[in-house]
Design goal:
Chain lengths: 220, 220
DNA sequence: ACCTGAACACCGTTCAAGT
DNA sequence: ACCTGAACACCGTTCAAGT
């Protein structure tokens, strides 16, 4: 990367590129400075601290996922699924950033755009009032928490395939299973579960539930 | 706390007590050593590194949540809800530990006991085969990811009430909402969402979905 | 106005030395 | 066998100095 005049955009670009290229490493100002051919402390001219920088990078991921979902054809459910899937994929591609989804509260434009999209799809589905808000909470909370979990696993594991095929349970190794008949009975099946299976099982359940609520509302 | 002969149990006790007493602080060996009246590096006699220590503490939380759920009366759904609720509560009570739920793979006895409980309840519900495994994945994954998210928020926020009443969105402050009609329309309702609302909306949707699958199975 | 580099406080971890 | 304490590499962050 050639030396560029620093600004917030350039720095966030470099953060995401770094997170993509070194999926097992956390972002440090030192590495970021090297990538930008700049002193490690130069970032403090543009962001108050590391938290703010991370938030800006997360906001960018939210914007990207929303764009992708808006570009997707289909009904509200297909488009919500596209959003949720894109969030997971982007988090897995940038583990060091995706792992921080817990801190997203103080919203940037990308976060708000994603909220707007979710509310719009759920409104199209036929929800309103309390049901709409609860559905938004379920989808948004699930997406953030699960994307963070996927990214954190990708960050920790050396054996990661980067596509979510991280074993959910890699071994029962040291634990004696004799007192746990159900675990023993399903041992093989449990070991085949991976991160994306978990993700999809959860979001399918939530969207099913929303679809039913919406249908009941229409029938009323 | 009086000086005690160190062993794994004593250290895990101290970790959880520290996490409870200083909900805004991460666990450090220095603070842990002070609490145990022992040098910061003494822990390396009993745990290979900090990861292993954290895993042991998480395993204890899993064991506690499982015990509480087993002691709960009611049908499978009530008992699953008890488990999930207890996991969230324990994570919020020990933010520095609960925040690490992503790393739980290499399982200890407490983790396996919780898996056994989940599989048992879902079997009682009438699930089997693939449906059982998918339901297990959805509930387990949701609980871990969301408990971690709650704990991470509790760790970051100074204004935390420790009971999950952390605002999900605290402000739209700097962002101009003129381009986001749905967000603007629901602004007030969105600001009332807290961490536990999100948690309950999600788990209710997942359990609804499981109940329907189970009923369909019975009807078949 | 923006970047540099020394400095500081604070981490996890290692290892030789103590008892 | 277990604990101590010095040491190391590595963090985020501050601030005076440069240009």
């Amino acid at each position: 990367m050639t030396r560029a005049r620093l600004d917030q955009r350039t720095i966030v670009d470099a953060v995401l590129e770094l997170a993509r290229q070194e999926p097992q490493a956390r972002i440090t100002f030192k590495r970021l400075g090297e990538a930008l051919s700049v002193d490690a402390t130069a970032m403090y001219r543009h962001f108050r601290n590391k938290d703010e920088l991370t938030r800006a990078a997360l906001d960018r991921l939210a914007a990207l996922a929303t764009e992708a979902a808006r570009a997707t054809d289909g009904d509200w459910r297909a488009r919500l699924e596209a959003f949720v899937r894109r969030m997971a994929a982007l988090s897995l591609e940038h583990p060091a950033i995706g792992a921080e989804w817990a801190m997203v509260d103080p919203v940037g434009p990308g976060d708000v755009a994603s909220d707007e999209f979710l509310l719009e799809m759920l409104t199209i589905a036929g929800l309103s009032g309390d049901e709409l808000i609860r559905a938004y909470a379920a989808v948004s909370g699930f997406t953030l928490a699960q994307s963070a979990a996927l990214a954190q696993e990708a960050l920790l594991r050396t054996d990661t395939a980067r596509d979510g095929t991280i074993p959910w349970i890699s071994t029962f190794g040291a634990v004696d299973l004799s007192g746990f008949p159900h675990v023993r009975a399903h041992r093989e099946a449990l070991l085949t579960i991976d991160g994306l299976t978990v993700y999809q099982a959860g979001i399918a359940a939530i969207l099913d539930s929303i679809a039913r609520t919406a249908d009941a509302g229409v029938a009323r």
